[in-house]
Design brief:
With 134 residues, the chain is an alpha+beta fold. It has 3 helices and 6 strands, in the order H-H-E-E-E-E-E-E-H.
Amino acid sequence: MGNDLISRGVAIEDFYRRVGGDLTMADVEYIEKVLNEVKEIVDGDDGWIPCSKELPEEPDYGLKDMDELDEYIVMIEGAVKPTVLEYAGGGEWYRDGVFYSVVAWRSLPAPYRPEKTIGEDYKNQIMYRFLRME
């Protein structure tokens, strides 16, 4: 990562020299943002998996209902934003009785789990139980 930061610094300095003039911190932040976006595009590490390269694991064919299929975030061919569909297997994507042509997919993220806070009453109960064990 250190070399990556040095490379970016050199690239930004080179850009400054080419455009001339003084750059503000906002300019530097914008250049960093663009460099990060370009790196993501070049590296292709955005989490999307093209259907032409790989498909999800085939579903268990013992399923009794299409609603039991695993869901994925997908890009439907021609769409401008992702949606969620079930993978029916064999390259087929399904939702509400309709099959869709999907070009890329990714797994759903883990569900949100709020941090649990322990209230004073609960702390007191634990301490009481601990003290009773002695």
